[in-house]
Every structure is written in structure tokens, then in C-alpha cells.
């Protein structure tokens, strides 16, 4: 296996408009594992009244709001109805392949959203490929004017004006104050949105941190999308793991706050990554490779997407779900080449632990 693992910040600017915002990605030249494993990531930043124009993509993804609030619209080709939701910091929103979406910052502060997902059907492996309905890069500009007129039941003069008015716009624009953005639907939010920041943690350790997750059990659409997500908050010096993805899925993680260290062990016990990570960087965990994340003195938070609708991990850490705890004492004694007393002591420590460990006092 020839995987180049590293932690990187977004290094490719797709679009950047002063006073409006920008969209940034991780290039496959600097982060080759994206194209190798057909996964992708994108970072959207919008200033107040900034709008990412309606578009669809050739792959599914999960959006996570790192900062700010947003009004998002989603139109599924399956029923052609628009669902408008208001999302805020900590919210996750799955976007299925082919779904038309738009994103609007209606607040007074900056909006930051990270998109993580698969790119298995992409034209360009390792990148989300977008098709914009409008703007200078919009699909309308590719069709002859007379066909647009016929398709929309307009005369040539009307279609020419329609094309001219939108053809000079960027894919990110600032909405005029007089334009009213649609109201969000509470029922759509309950069906599509899940807040990881406010969710009841599935793991919570005093002085250690919390682990929250969202899967197809919480949001049914994730079963169709084939993805799930989790959020980890580690307090200073705390450790997550070792754990591994136990269902052939891979994991893509984005550091939302703080810094720390990531260690990943691959085949034959070889360390494939031992790196410092910080806010804004992303790291990748191959399937079945156990990994550990350790927070620095300031703590660390990160959001991860798995290429599976379920959150299934093998825990090689402490805790009731630990594989070490489940293993027979005699097998551990033989495998670790230890005495019965040391094996018993080891299992007692495992039983008292958790997948998140607070800083050691010793």
C-alpha cells in the first residue's frame, strides 16, 4: 500500500470575492490520498448577505457549520420541492448527490461550513464537481439563446435579457437588501439537521472530553447518502483511541479548534503518520488502520465523516467496549508474553478506562 498520509490546510482557491466570501479545497497534488481513495472536502466562507448560488454536485457530502448561521435551500430531483432550513454552529446537513442547493448568510458575522464526503463518481477524483444553474459559470450560458427561449416559453428578446442579467454574476454574490430570502421550515430541519455540538454525547469523560455522532439512526437520509459523522472534543492532554474503523469505511477529519497530534499505525505495525495537527487542517484515516489523537495544552476539537451510514469502530482503548477487555485472559497472557498477575492488572486498568482518556497523573 502506497498511501501518502499527512495533515494539510486547504491550499486551492476555487473562488474568492471581496466582501462576499470564498470557496477553498484541498488539491490532490498536495493531498493525493483524496484522489487515491475518492474522497473530497471543501470549505465555504460567506460574509453577511453572501449567497452561494444554486448548484448541484456529482457526489454526496455532509455539511458541518463551524461558525455562524445559515439559511440553506435543498431541491431534490426526485420530488422537485424546495426544503429550506436554518442551520447554526454544530449543525450537520447531508446533501445527496444531484440535489440542488443554495447557501445564504443572513447574520451579521462570518459563516464557515466544511463539506466532507465521497467522490467515487466524480469526473475529477478527489474533488467535488459542481454544476451551477446561474452565474457566468452557469449551465444556462452553454445553451443557444433560441433553445432557452423555446424551453422557457419566452420570446428571443426576453430570453436574451434573462441570459444577460445573470451571465456577469459570480458563483458567490452579495444579495441586495431588498430581496427577501425564503423562511426556514421547522419540519424540514427536524428531518434533515442534527446538531453535534448540543447532542447528548455517546461518550463523556471528566477532564477528558466528549464524543458525539450522527448516523442513519438519527437522520434517515444518511442511509441513502452512505455517510455518517462524529465530533470529538478533547480537553488539554486528553487522548482518543486507539480505535479503528471496523466496517471497511474510511474517515476524513477536519480540525475545527485547537491543536494536537495524530498517530496512525498501518500494516505490520508500521507508523504511517505521526504529525502535529492544528485548526483548519485535515487528516485521513485508512480503513482498519488504528489511530490515536492527543490534544495539546489548549485542547482540540475535530469533525469527521465516515464512508458508511453507521458508526462502527473497533476499540483498542480502555472501556467496556474494548477488545482487550473482551479477550480471554489466557489468550492475552500468551499473546503479550506476560505473567497472570500482570495480565489481570492490565485488564483491570482497561475495564476502568474509556475510549477517551484524560491526562495521566503519573
TrEMBL record:
<dbReference type="InterPro" id="IPR014710">
    <property type="entry name" value="RmlC-like_jellyroll"/>
</dbReference>
<feature type="domain" description="Cupin type-1">
    <location>
        <begin position="194"/>
        <end position="344"/>
    </location>
</feature>
<dbReference type="InterPro" id="IPR006045">
    <property type="entry name" value="Cupin_1"/>
</dbReference>
<keyword id="KW-0758">Storage protein</keyword>
<keyword id="KW-1015">Disulfide bond</keyword>
<keyword id="KW-0708">Seed storage protein</keyword>
<dbReference type="InterPro" id="IPR050253">
    <property type="entry name" value="Seed_Storage-Functional"/>
</dbReference>
<dbReference type="Pfam" id="PF00190">
    <property type="entry name" value="Cupin_1"/>
</dbReference>
<dbReference type="InterPro" id="IPR011051">
    <property type="entry name" value="RmlC_Cupin_sf"/>
</dbReference>
<dbReference type="GO" id="GO:0045735">
    <property type="term" value="F:nutrient reservoir activity"/>
</dbReference>
<protein>
    <recommendedName>
        <fullName>Cupin type-1 domain-containing protein</fullName>
    </recommendedName>
</protein>
<feature type="domain" description="Cupin type-1">
    <location>
        <begin position="3"/>
        <end position="160"/>
    </location>
</feature>
<comment type="similarity">
    <text>Belongs to the 11S seed storage protein (globulins) family.</text>
</comment>
<dbReference type="InterPro" id="IPR006044">
    <property type="entry name" value="11S_seedstore_pln"/>
</dbReference>
Amino acid at each position: 500500500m502506497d498511501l501518502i498520509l499527512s495533515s494539510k490546510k486547504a491550499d486551492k482557491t476555487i473562488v474568492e470575492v471581496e466582501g462576499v466570501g470564498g470557496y477553498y479545497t484541498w488539491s490532490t497534488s498536495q493531498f493525493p490520498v483524496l484522489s487515491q481513495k475518492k474522497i473530497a472536502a471543501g470549505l465555504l466562507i460567506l460574509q453577511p448577505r453572501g449567497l452561494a448560488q444554486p448548484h448541484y454536485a456529482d457526489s454526496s457530502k455532509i455539511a458541518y457549520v463551524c461558525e455562524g448561521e445559515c439559511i440553506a435551500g435543498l431541491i431534490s430531483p426526485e420530488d422537485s420541492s424546495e426544503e429550506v432550513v436554518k442551520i447554526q454552529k454544530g449543525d450537520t446537513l447531508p446533501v445527496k448527490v444531484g440535489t440542488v442547493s443554495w447557501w445564504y448568510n443572513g447574520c451579521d458575522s462570518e459563516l464557515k461550513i466544511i463539506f466532507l464526503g465521497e467522490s467515487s463518481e466524480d469526473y475529477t477524483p478527489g474533488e467535488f464537481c459542481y454544476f451551477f444553474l446561474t452565474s457566468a459559470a452557469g449551465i444556462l450560458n452553454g445553451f443557444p439563446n433560441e433553445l432557452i427561449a423555446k424551453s422557457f416559453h419566452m420570446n428571443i428578446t426576453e430570453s436574451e435579457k434573462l441570459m444577460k442579467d445573470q451571465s456577469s454574476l459570480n458563483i458567490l454574490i452579495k444579495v441586495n437588501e431588498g430581496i427577501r430570502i425564503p423562511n426556514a421550515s421547522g419540519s424540514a430541519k427536524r428531518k434533515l439537521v442534527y446538531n453535534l455540538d448540543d447532542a447528548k454525547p455517546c461518550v463523556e469523560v471528566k477532564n477528558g472530553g466528549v464524543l458525539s455522532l450522527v448516523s442513519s439512526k438519527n437522520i434517515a437520509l444518511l442511509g441513502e447518502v452512505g455517510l455518517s459523522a462524529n465530533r470529538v472534543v478533547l480537553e488539554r492532554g486528553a487522548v482518543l483511541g486507539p480505535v479503528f474503523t471496523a466496517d471497511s469505511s474510511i474517515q476524513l477529519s477536519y480540525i475545527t479548534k485547537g491543536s494536537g497530534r495524530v498517530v496512525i499505525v498501518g500494516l505490520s505495525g508500521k507508523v504511517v503518520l505521526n504529525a502535529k495537527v492544528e485548526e483548519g487542517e485535515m487528516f485521513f484515516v485508512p480503513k482498519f488502520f488504528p489511530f490515536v489523537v492527543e490534544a495539546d495544552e489548549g485542547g482540540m476539537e475535530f469533525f469527521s465523516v465516515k464512508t458508511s451510514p453507521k458508526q462502527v469502530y473497533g476499540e483498542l482503548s480502555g472501556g467496556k467496549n474494548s477488545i482487550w477487555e473482551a479477550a480471554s485472559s489466557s489468550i492475552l497472557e500468551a499473546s503479550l508474553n506476560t505473567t497472570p498477575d500482570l495480565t489481570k492488572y492490565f485488564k483491570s486498568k482497561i475495564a476502568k478506562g474509556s475510549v477517551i482518556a484524560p491526562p495521566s497523573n503519573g
